[in-house]
Design brief:
The complex is a heterotrimer of chains A (379), B (509) and C (356). With 379 residues, chain A is mainly alpha-helical. Chain A is 73% helix and 0% strand. Chain A has one domain (56-327): ABC transporter involved in vitamin B12 uptake, BtuC (Orthogonal Bundle), CATH 1.10.3470. Chain A has helices at 10-35, 40-52, 55-80, 88-106, 112-141, 145-165, 191-196, 209-226, 228-238, 240-245, 250-268, 270-277, 288-298, 303-326, 333-348, 354-364, 366-375. Classes of the chains: A mainly alpha (379), B alpha/beta (509), C mainly alpha (356). Chains in contact: A-B, A-C, B-C.
């Protein structure tokens, strides 16, 4: 009996169940807070206030969300094609190289509005190229993409360390990073938008990349559900055999999907590199690629869900910083735990509560859950 | 009558709203071969799974050897002397025969003594029942018939007194099936009880002592085999007179649409599955390909439709060559007017997770009718799907419904509607009515004949001999990857059976 | 003689560096052979390292530390089992989750309990597993007596036997002239966990191919339905495989924090779990191959440390990052099918659903 015997209404499927899973993740996280001797409720209040209480907090929340929208979309695009791209982290990291090349070359001669599109293209291209090799190996040699992308994360890290302590580092400097970009490679901030709504912002890195992220979310929606390519990706994702039957080339679709995924991952690098740090430093991605897995799962692979989940995680990151300040026993690593718990409960244990909820629905209104199954009764 | 080996009293089992078994009563006598027949989905397999502890009955009682038994796991069943040979063999492919036999029946924590014991026990079983097999052979290197023998040995090794076989001949050649029947008779002589589940009436008549018929989850009748006929059983199975042949006129075969010459296809392991096949398919005729499953029919279909790459050979479609050994892909073939209804609609012909309308364009999604530039033309797709739903009476008639929620027959109609409505010159169909309810079978057969009457060329592959004989204007029989004979639609079942067994081929060689 | 010395030293550190890889790799072997992908080796090792060092420092006992490392690591393995066996969740996703929870919780709890920036207190003698050197052996022989005066004495005596017997044997071998000294350098002077790790190789082979458990384990990774219909619980069998995994990752973690290092440092596994995973693929899921793969990867690590800054003849200076990336590059090349084909257990990664 492969099909679940009872269906849930869409709002329960896409709203209630993720909400329950998320709540459980937070309850468990609350226990960890208790374990270190702090009050989880107070922690939650600090967290939310830190993220949304002040204009600066909101701006930081959205800054982090920008990063996670890109990585979440990256994971989701691959997932729609049935591929688990665990290499978002490495693709984003190595894309920093593309941005560095553009910015270091042109920051003194071109204005930001020329450098930005150039950097977008460079970041996307390098990210896509880094995804290309695992994609090719999966498509043509059958190498498991989960394993190869993990390997490529490490290879990317080694390569970037090599470059950042060597060729890309200014000779006079000690820090393993490129020189700081000039004004021509600094992206304009978006804080004024929040200020229009009366928020007061001291200094926050929220920048124009946020808008790019929203545009990308819309484009991904368009791609997946409204284009022929998206249709082909979803077909392959659900059933490679059906894709073959439909004349969809396996090699082409895997490589295309992975390169789009890699490009989205690569664009993530724009946000911290050009929008905030103005240089490429060691480990600037710092796990955002993996957060993308949580965001994509939480958002159920839908761009709207991903944007919401990214804002949630942005809130955790920003609020978590405040939390670390207010409660010394809790460092920002608390977020890593919450992230893990969200992946566990919204991802791996996605269906844990489903039977109970179905039973609950069935007891309220048998008609809403049983009828499809009767109609669908097999031959 | 001998004492009952198994009694089932009032067994009920539901899966959600689907009642797979209702109020089943059954008595199987010790030392007999008892057949259980029914259409696909009649509830036979569910019933046997309850007996083997795979599922739990919702209500009812099982008695084994006269005593009430509680069978909660396969272990309980094994302990009660019930053994099962599954339709899909439950063997570990890269283990040896011995390893498979002792798996789950080891004597202690170390393998050494288990293996020694199994070796001598196997020797004994071989002598007693003529079940020869090399104990050190790797399963995946054995032919299917021998793999099945290992399954039987597994059951006997565990001391099975009652042996249940689920559709055991589906993958066997007639010769292998005959051998199996000899073994089953031998088992019966030794006092074992055999339960044979099948939907093939011929087998029931040939080997069983008693037969029970299931229909839509209920047990409709039990007969002594010697006192019943195929016609009676068939009627009991479907609940009304079976329409064995669809009305159709003479074929008016025209020009050659598809010419296959010296086609050779290998499977992924490099085994030759289609061996140097040549045939023509003309406009206005239905050619049926008969054969036991696994004799290369699937690979032939896949090669002609461009899914699987051929090793050598040439194919002409409408007089122009298609490069099946190289670049041909299913999309190109569709463009050239060759449509394909695949054997496996669940994984190939449909994406079950898609909405109905999305499946109604699968394979034709690059047709400009359904596109606006790189975008899908949702309005056109929905209108098209609604149109097909009406024409083919697909139920429920909701193009937004997930395809998985349609019944087998309606799913097959979705595929047929998609392929036929493209108005192809050549239609190739694999197992047109597998897992399809009786009402839909008639509908599908009529549609295929209508295609023929419109002057299309239709190629049908089916393991159901009745279907082949009822639909085809010409019948090609495949055996071991070759076409071993061509017959007209009036060929007898016996004649075709011999061909399917490869017997004439040997005589000719 | 200098070159020989250098080679022996590199080989010696190869052994030390390959031990955690080997333990984690064999851990992965149990779970993957049973059909459960486990990319959570990293996380389980990390919690093992933390629990081991924390417990050893609090209870002043290396053995309690080891026990705790195993216990916590097994608990995490059970979470993986709960998600991927009981609830048939995605095994990759569950593994990722475990790695995150491990990375975060070890830092948070470490900071909360010890206030040393995520470190555990430096382990004192007796709280960590010491290297068994010639001195230690002679010292031990001088004072050791097998006492049955009380239960505690008996336990201590038995512990002594477990700890030093293998070393005594090697000590005898080390006295063989010529070959002896090099042997002594390589084989002697390690802690008991090193010997345990290498002993696990033949042991795992034996379990896999000579015991009932091993037969069933291999079967369930290839065709769980065959195991199920043979009347064996697929669920319980896979859980047992994961318990083995948890025990071994626990020991691997304990080795990191209680042998290689004198305490827990945050994120101290530093990707070793993933290298172990790579080694497992490289070894094609076979125990003896696993040992060679881990020795190779350990050697690359040792060589990169040794070669830091100093140029090689012919090749010239090799960046350390290149050597660090080499295991991953090699694994990708292997996966690409250029050096043999790595065929994983057939049922790997697919949750078992009883279906007809």
């Amino acid at each position: 009996m492969s099909t679940p015997y009872a269906k849930l209404p869409a709002w329960a499927d896409y709203g209630l169940i993720p909400l329950i899973n998320l709540s459980v993740a937070f309850i468990v996280a609350g226990f960890v807070v208790m374990l270190v001797g702090e009050n989880p409720l107070r922690a939650a209040v600090i967290l939310v206030e830190g993220a949304f209480g002040k204009g600066t907090g909101i701006a930081f929340t959205l800054f982090y969300a920008t990063t996670f929208i890109f990585t979440g979309l990256s994971v989701a695009v691959a997932a729609h094609c049935g591929l688990f791209n665990i290499g978002t982290e490495g693709q984003a990291y190595i894309a920093g190289l593309g941005i560095a090349i553009v910015c270091l070359s042109f920051d003194s001669v071109l204005p930001w509005w020329v450098n930005f599109p150039l950097a977008i293209v460079a970041a996307a291209a390098v990210g896509a190229l880094w995804a290309l090799i695992p994609a090719y190996l999966q498509a043509r040699r059958g190498s498991h993409i989960v394993i190869t992308t993990i390997m490529f994360n490490f290879i990317a890290a080694s390569l970037m360390v090599y470059l950042l302590v060597g060729p890309l580092k200014p000779a006079a400097s000690q820090a393993p990073q490129t020189r700081n970009f000039l004004a021509g490679a600094e992206l304009p901030k978006l804080n004024w938008i929040l200020e229009l709504f009366g928020a007061k912002i001291r200094s926050a890195p929220l920048n124009i990349t946020f808008l790019l992220a929203l545009v990308m979310a819309f484009l991904v929606w368009l791609l997946i559900w409204r284009t022929r390519l998206g249709y082909e990706m979803r077909t392959y994702g659900h059933s490679p055999k059906a894709a073959r039957y439909a004349g969809i080339s396996e090699t082409r679709i895997i490589i295309t999907a992975m390169m789009i995924s890699g490009a989205l991952a690569g664009m993530m690098a724009l946000n911290p590199v050009m929008g905030d740090q103005h240089n490429v430093a060691i480990d600037f991605v710092s796990g955002a690629g993996f957060v993308g897995i949580a965001v994509a799962l939480m958002g159920r692979l839908h761009p709207v869900g991903i944007v919401l989940a990214a804002i949630l995680f942005g809130m955790l990151y920003q609020g978590g910083a405040e939390l670390a300040f207010e409660m010394p026993a809790i460092s920002r690593d608390m977020i890593v735990i919450i992230q893990g718990l969200v992946i566990l409960f919204a991802g791996a244990l996605e269906h844990m509560f489903r039977p109970y909820i179905q039973a609950l629905f069935a007891s309220f209104s048998p008609r809403s859950v049983g009828m499809e199954a009767v109609k669908g009764k097999g031959a | 009558m001998a004492q009952a080996a198994i009694e089932l009293v009032g067994i009920n089992k539901s899966f959600g709203a689907v009642r797979a078994n209702r109020d089943i009563n059954l008595e199987i006598a010790r030392g007999t071969i008892h057949g259980i027949v029914g259409e696909n989905g009649a509830g036979k397999s569910t019933l046997m799974s309850i007996l083997y502890g795979f599922y739990q009955a919702d209500s009812g009682e099982i008695r084994v050897g006269g005593k009430p038994a509680s069978i909660k796991t396969s272990n309980d069943a094994i302990a009660l002397g019930i053994g099962m040979v599954h339709q899909h063999f439950m063997l570990v492919d890269n283990f040896t025969v011995l390893e498979n036999i002792i798996l789950g029946a080891e004597t202690n924590a170390l393998l050494k003594s288990s293996i020694a014991k199994a070796r001598s026990e196997l020797d004994r079983l071989e002598r007693e029942y003529g079940l020869e097999v090399d104990p050190d052979a790797i399963i995946e290197e054995l032919p299917v018939g021998l793999q099945q023998r290992v399954e039987i040995l597994k059951a006997l090794y565990r001391g099975a007194e009652i042996l249940i076989l689920d559709e055991p001949t589906g993958v066997l050649t007639p010769a292998e099936a005959d051998h199996l029947f000899r073994i089953l008779r031998q088992l019966k002589e030794q006092g074992k009880t055999v339960v044979l589940i099948t939907h093939k009436l011929r087998e029931i008549m040939a080997i069983t002592d008693t037969v029970s018929v299931m229909r839509q989850g209920t047990m409709v009748a039990t007969r002594e085999t010697s006192k019943t006929t195929v016609e009676e059983l068939a009627e009991l199975m479907v609940g009304r007179r079976v329409l064995l042949r669809v009305e159709k006129g003479e074929a008016a075969a025209g020009a050659v649409k598809l010419a296959v010459k010296n086609l050779t296809v290998k499977d992924s392991r490099g085994v030759t599955m289609v061996d140097d096949i040549s045939f023509d398919l003309r406009a206005g005729e239905i050619v049926g390909i008969a054969g036991v499953a696994g004799n290369g029919q699937s690979e032939l279909l896949e090669a002609i439709s461009g899914i699987r790459r051929a090793v050598s050979g040439s194919v002409m479609l409408d007089g122009k060559p298609i490069d099946l050994t190289g670049a041909a892909d299913p999309g190109e073939l569709r463009d050239r007017g060759l449509a394909h209804v695949p054997e496996d609609r669940h994984h190939v012909g449909l994406v079950l997770a898609f909405e109905e309308n999305e499946n109604s364009i699968l394979g034709y999604h690059d047709d400009p009718r359904y596109l606006k530039g790189p975008f899908l033309n949702i309005d056109a797709i929905m209108a098209d799907a609604t149109d097909k739903i009406e024409k083919y009476d697909i139920r429920p008639g909701n193009p937004r419904l997930k395809t998985a929620n349609f019944s087998g027959g309606n799913q097959q109609k979705i595929v047929l509607a998609r392929e036929i409505e493209q108005d192809p010159g050549v239609l190739i169909v694999g197992q047109p009515t597998r897992g399809v309810d009786v009402g839909a079978i008639e509908f599908i057969h009529k549609r295929l004949i209508a295609m023929r009457d419109q002057g299309k060329a239709v190629l049908v592959v089916s393991v159901e001999l009745d279907e082949i004989r009822s639909l085809s204007d010409r019948i090609l029989v495949m055996f071991a990857g070759r076409i071993v004979g061509e017959r007209g639609p009036d060929a007898t079942e016996g004649e075709l059976g011999l061909l399917m067994a490869g017997i004439e081929q040997e005589a000719a060689a | 003689m200098d070159t020989l010395n250098a080679i022996v030293q590199v080989l010696d550190s190869t052994i030390r560096l390959s031990v955690p890889l080997l333990l984690a790799c064999l851990a992965g072997l149990y779970s993957e052979r049973s059909g459960i992908f486990d990319i959570g080796l990293e996380g389980k090792m990390l919690v093992g390292a933390f629990a081991g060092a924390a417990a050893a420092s609090v209870f002043h006992s290396a053995f309690i530390g080891l026990g705790m490392a195993i216990l916590i690591s097994v608990a995490f393995a059970m979470v993986h089992g709960f998600a991927s066996i009981t609830h048939r969740g995605n095994q990759i996703v569950s593994g990722v989750a475990i790695n995150f929870i491990a990375a975060g919780s070890t830092i948070i709890l470490g900071q909360a309990w010890f206030q040393q920036g995520g470190r555990t207190p430096a382990l004192q003698p007796g709280e960590r597993f010491e290297s068994i050197t010639a001195d230690v052996i002679s010292n031990f022989l001088a004072t050791y007596s097998f006492s049955t005066a009380s239960v505690a004495d008996l336990l201590v005596s038995i512990r002594g036997l477990i700890l030093y017997l293998p070393a005594l044997l090697f000590d005898a071998l080390a006295r063989i002239p010529g070959f002896g000294p090099i042997f002594a350098e390589l084989v002697l002077g390690h802690s008991v966990l090193v010997y345990f790790a290498f002993a696990m190789v033949p042991f795992t082979w034996w379990v896999l191919f000579r015991t009932r458990f091993g037969l069933r384990l291999r079967a369930v990774g290839e065709n769980p339905a065959a195991v199920d219909t043979a009347g064996i619980s697929v669920t319980w069998l896979r859980y047992r495989a994961l318990i083995c995994t948890g025990i071994l990752t626990g020991v691997a973690g304990a080795y990191l924090s209680m042998v290689q290092n004198g305490g827990f440092v945050k994120d101290m596994t530093a990707g070793k779990g993933y290298i172990a995973l790579a080694a497992l693929i490289f070894a094609k899921w076979k125990p003896v191959n696993a040992m060679f793969a881990c020795l190779l990867f350990g050697f690359l690590d040792a060589a990169s440390i040794r070669l830091q800054g100093s140029p090689l003849p012919v090749i010239g200076k090799v960046p350390a990052q290149f050597m660090q990336a080499l295991p991953y590059v090699l694994t990708v090349i292997l996966l690409a099918g250029f050096i043999g084909k790595a065929i994983p257990p057939r049922a790997g990664g697919v949750p078992y659903v009883k279906e007809r």
